[in-house]
Structure prediction request, 128 residues.
Amino acid sequence: MRRPKAKALGIFKSKLEQTADGELLSHKADYLYESEKLPYVISRNYIPDFVLRKKNGDLLYLEVKGYLRPGDRTKMVAVKKAHPLADIRFVFAKNNKISGSKMYYSDWCNKYGFPFVFGKIPKKWTRE
Prediction:
């Protein structure tokens, strides 16, 4: 195995990691730094803001957001993946731009398949 070149703190995130690298090197250990990715899943529960029952008995979930935080975006994509048939819709105050991105809330919703509105909840959503 090859050890990456370290420069000052360079590739390391902390002084402690840099020290550990030096110790491993002095032990002549066969190692790599941050060379593997081990996927994991954290099981959580999503609690929608509002749950409406449609005329056919199906449920419609409303998520009301003034600000769509990064954690909320990650969570909602995971919820959609776990429950692809769930009817989850967003009600935003306005079409804000996602910080650090060229996307707006509308772009994000379209990308991930979430119906959305800005401002008021459409009466037709409550009559389905």
Observations:
- The longest strand covers residues 59-65.
- The helical segments are 15-26, 70-82, 105-112.
- Residues 70-82 form the longest helix (13 residues).
- The mean pLDDT is 91.
